Amino acid sequence: MSLAKLADIDRRVFYWILFIALMVPFLSPIGFPITLSPNTQDLYDGVTGDEVEEGEVWILNFGYGVSAWSECHPSVTVCTKALFREGAKIIITGTHYDVELTYNKLQDTCRADFDNKVYGVDYVFLGYMTGGESVVAQLGSDIASVYPQDHFGTPYDEIPMLEGIVDNADIAGVLSSDTGDYGGHFMTQWQSAYGTKLAEIGIAMNASTDLPRWQAGNFFGVSVGSRGGAELEQLIGELGEATTAMDSISVSHLLLILAIIVGNIGVITEKLGGNK
Amino acid sequence: MAYPTATLDVIGLWVGWFLMLMIYSYPLYKENVSYRFAEHLFIGITLAITAITNFSNIMRMCITPLMQGQILMIVPLILGLMIFTMLIPEYRWVSRYPIALMVGAGFGLGIRGTIKPNLQDAIIDTITAPTGGGLIDWFNYLWVAVGLVCSILYFMLTFEHSGALKTPTRIGRLFLMIALGGYFGNTVLFRFTMLTGRAQFFLQVLKLIPM
Amino acid sequence: MSNIFKQEVVYAITGIVTLLMIVEYFFFATNQIWAETIRTWAVIIFNISLFLGAIRLTMSHSVRIQEKRRDWQFSGVLMAIFVIMLLTGIAGYISTGVQTSNGIYNWLFNYIYTPLGATLYPITGFYIFSAAYRAFRARNIDATLMLVAGCLVMLKNAPVGEAIWVGFKDLGNWVQFTGQIPGMRTLAIVGALGLIAFGFRALLGKERGFYAGGSE
Predict the structure, then answer these.
(1) Is residue C39 part of a domain?
(2) Dist CA B41 CA B21 (whole Å)
(3) Distance of CA C79 to the CA centre of its chain
(4) What angle (nearest 5°) sits at the alpha carbon of residue C146, between those of residues C140 and C149?
(5) Engineering a disulfide at B185: which of A268, C110, C154, C169 sits with its beta carbon 3.0 to 4.6 angstroms away?
(6) Other chains touching B, judged by 3 or more CB pairs under 8 Å
(7) How far apart are CA C198 and CA A5, in angstroms?
């Protein structure tokens, strides 16, 4: 088959090949080893051990919706488990309108850890907020002005764990997980303004913007999409969704690179033919 | 989450499975009635969820405090309602007031917040030489420093990229190409992970793999 | 006179609020009540303004149904599900303060919204695949560099890369942690400088493009 004919193949053929190829590794796992990246190690070190004191309050912000569950949720699950096991308390906020679905999923994936905790004492779900940089800045000044009640309608000052929690000074750290740039907003309005510890659990697409910030010290750690999730699952010793998906990710990436190589064979042969 | 047993949940799971196939009928087959049906269903449902979530937000942040005696909360409520004059052409100018407040707050916060992390910290990290590093560390340091300078020169569009600026701006462009290539590589992981999640769901509903 | 209220007062408000935020940050040790109040108002106004999109979309689809334009039946589906979700959500909110307490709303949220939301965005993964085959050509040095950097990062992200050759991990790490840093950092710096310049133009009343009917 000539290269010109290859280029004429209906693109739907490629879509079917990809769709089927993605499913095969789930039916027949391969188990490629996963090595750790320094940014993920830093993130894990920042939410475990000496970096976290018992009783200190962290904010976990859900900035991702159902479409990015496979990217961000495994990392969020591991970080939640790690913080709970260190005895930290967690305030869960959200900047995506389906945050309640994500909160329910987190309870499902961290079932054993949540069963040992009491709502309002060890964790609280404040719910949805929106307003870009303004709302993040206001959250740093006065949390109760953004959340006069939690998601379930309980007034702020009736929630035991929020007693004395007024602003950024009372928050030990922030884990921002998002598909947009709320991590950047927390960086400009919390980390650079008040020095609050901040880490990003982002989609892979944000890695290119987040890694320079990690290198500059603005983030204490960065998790890069599902790959970061798989690495974190290895670190905590509880393999889950991200590790399971890595074989399928490998197959899809390999297919894409093969497609790029095949597509460029024509260009390369043209150039070699021209040089002769 | 285990495979549900309640009838409504099982029905919901299969409804979701078929909706997924209806959406995928577009790339895998061609645009068709079922795809358009699913697409419009999604838009309608998202619209409603957004409206209700924002409504509950406004109740929580504005209306409830107003009812509890914070009279000043009437101001953002009135300003917010003024936004809707955007729908009436002859009174559209009234909506500029709430927009002015939002834009002013956004710009002020942006200006004050961006200086330290995006300028100061970035430049300090770039110019900080490695202490006791080997050859590779020094190569990386020079790569970042020279690359940053050349790339910034590329964005100086008020000067023509000729003469003394020709070579550095050309080099800057190459550095930007590498950055965009890295960005593309990460984007691929993001997109394929989402697809992988759907492939997994496809098999889980059919009970070919555990949920 | 009316022009002052339509333009000058508006620009003055933008400038004053911008200045307020900057002064609070640089000149006061603790947060100031006036800046906090303005920020809270800005957030509330932002929340209210999100209804504008819902109103416009509802108006446009209602017109399509009334005039029976092409594919008006799908607009009917859209409006029907919108009304059902809205009413059930409000019913849930009124009864318990949480919209998902209504069974119908909760079921639709979990079993209609979730699979649709999780499926629509990943379609772009298919398009990346066909685009990589058809459009990603190494025709010159710029495109080649971009292609090579992209492939190295892909082979680093996917565990198969390291399984094929351990060098892919090292090269991919180099691109990820050093190679792309100058370019991405440049974009951040240039973006920050642009934001500051744009903000000062807004402060001085010279930036008017974002006001509705800005030419009046």
Answers:
(1) yes
(2) 14
(3) 24
(4) 135
(5) C154
(6) A, C
(7) 51
In terms of residue numbers, what domain contains C13? 1-63
The interface predicted TM-score of the complex, written ipTM, equals 0.91
Q: Which CATH class is domain A38-239?
A: alpha beta
Beta strands in B143-203 (DSSP E): none
pTM above 0.80, yes or no: yes
- A138, amino acid identity: Q
Asked if B182 lies within 8 A of C149 by C-beta distance, the reply is yes
The CA-atom distances, in angstroms, between A81 and each of A38, A107, B189 are 20, 11, 25
Q: What are the sequence ranges of the domains in chain A?
A: 3-30+248-275, 38-239
Q: Name the nearest CA neighbour of C46 among B133, A210, B37, A134.
A: A134
Number of domains comprising chain C: 3
Same domain, C143 and C167: yes
How far, in Å, CA of A82 to CA of C82, rounded? 40
**pLDDT tens, chain B, 211 aa long:** 788 899 999 999 999 999 999 999 999 999 999 999 999 999 999 999 999 999 999 999 999 999 999 999 999 999 999 999 999 989 999 999 999 999 999 999 999 999 999 999 999 999 999 988 799 999 999 999 999 999 999 999 888 888 999 999 999 999 999 999 999 999 999 999 999 999 999 999 999 998 8
CB contacts under 8 A, C 114-143 vs B, are 114-128, 141-143
